[in-house]
């Protein structure tokens, strides 16, 4: 049978211990004030609350605490361990705050916890931090598809993936859940500076944000950034459409079309996570920053079209046929479109008239430097211009044709000589069997 708690507090009314009674808080306060006034030695020992006592003895795995001279409390096992490592620094006679787990054991002791007391202190600290708008240091414990479970002050909190700062946000193609989880797993053990965005002590819910903690600094950096600025950063994410670069507390996207002046099939061909790069700011829309790497270098296309003149006729090769016209390559990456409206005859179906690889002669109507393209035409190319181009091509080939003539003649003679040789060899071959017959 459970022994009664040895204290004059055992005679207190039932409501004094009943925490579920709606009148408990008010009545308890009145009773505590009354008894405290009548007896200086009065100590309230209620499960779920924190009391103060003095260390009576300290042994491995056990701590005895004197509670106001009317009861003895014991702290043991995991209840000794808290985030502040309180037990390690305690000496006999030191005052200590402890959480009441049970008000009585068969031995007449009060079961206490330093761990729970530290957690309660932490919640009080969290309330203060939240109200003052301060920051909280947390450490990642584990990852799930929604974010990170973090710990601080002995309390477990949640850091959603959407609340990670740009440098830690997992950038993956198609929001692949498995890839996101894999990237989040690499953050386990990492420390984060966060702000509290949701706190509910009653249900023990704490949600923090790394992004919010860097908000003021990020806004200040963003306000100073302008189009044309050069930034130095690090590749934080690589996706099919480009790369994400973090610099300071900001993040920008270098679209695949802005990586280099040449064609890029996949950004992974050029970059990897962690690469240090320099880029130019080409657009700012809210917090969305567009960057370019290629614009830090001269445009080679401009040099290639430097010698092209509007109105001049040039030879080219069809590289693509569409229902609205044909694309023609003049040199290297210099391409242009001959729209059906620039065909010599109306109503021609390009897909029936032309084929890829076909040599054509075109006139340059416009050089579109921003689009890296030419506007071309089949119109206005006179017979003389065509003939001149043809003659020019023939003149280049003429020496080669003249050199081929003696070679061909030699090749024609060689087979004849071979025939004679073979014929001479065949005659003795016919005679030899005849001699054997004799």
Describe this structure in words.
With 438 residues, the protein is an alpha+beta fold. The chain has 4 domains: 8-114, Nucleic acid-binding proteins (OB fold (Dihydrolipoamide Acetyltransferase, E2P), Beta Barrel), CATH 2.40.50.140; 133-213, OB fold (Dihydrolipoamide Acetyltransferase, E2P), CATH 2.40.50; 231-296, Nucleic acid-binding proteins (OB fold (Dihydrolipoamide Acetyltransferase, E2P)); 309-384, OB fold (Dihydrolipoamide Acetyltransferase, E2P) (Beta Barrel). It is 29% helix and 33% strand. It has 10 helices and 20 strands. The strands form 4 sheets. Strands 1-2-3-5-4 form a 5-stranded mixed beta barrel. Strands 8-7-6-9-10 form a 5-stranded antiparallel sheet. A 5-stranded mixed beta barrel has the order 11-12-13-15-14. The protein is rod-shaped and about 115 Å long. It starts with 13 loop residues before the first helix and ends with a helix. 21% of the residues are buried. Mean pLDDT is 80; it is low at 1-19, 34-40 and 384-438.
